[in-house]
Request: fold
Amino acid sequence: MTRPDFRITCCLCGKPVPRASDAYDLDREWQRRFPDMTGTLACPCALNNSWQCRDGRDRYVEGHIPALDSNGMLTPPGRDFDSWCHVGAPGTHVARVLINPWSGLLQGAEEYLRHTAQRSGLDPEVACRLQRVLDVWDAHHR
Ligand SMILES: [Zn+2]
Ligand SMILES: [Zn+2]
Reply:
């Protein structure tokens, strides 16, 4: 069986993320501000959609969820000030849906992820994590 192809639908603009461009993972502060987002993977439109973390008095807006770095540690306040601080490192579509399979399922990569979970030679830890997410997904959609 050949690897199923997939297109990610951007969680912000609803358009397919262009194959040639990276996908960006948006964090919980984005989800708070855009509660209608489906999944968390965006096309580069996220970089044009800017907002500030602080109000006019330099205080974080109410409900602000602090930005985390790639290790899940709090970003220092000096580096948590606008929408860019809340965009994860860009990655290929495949990398992004494997790191964030739940968003992948929501945004068009279901067939690809199912195929990948069954693939021999996949890192057992990745396979195990993927299968757990698929099990939860199936329990929700039965
Ligand atoms: Zn977009
Ligand atoms: Zn912030």
In short: Residues 24-140 form one domain. The mean pLDDT is 94. The helical segments are 28-33, 45-48, 93-99, 101-106, 110-118, 124-140.
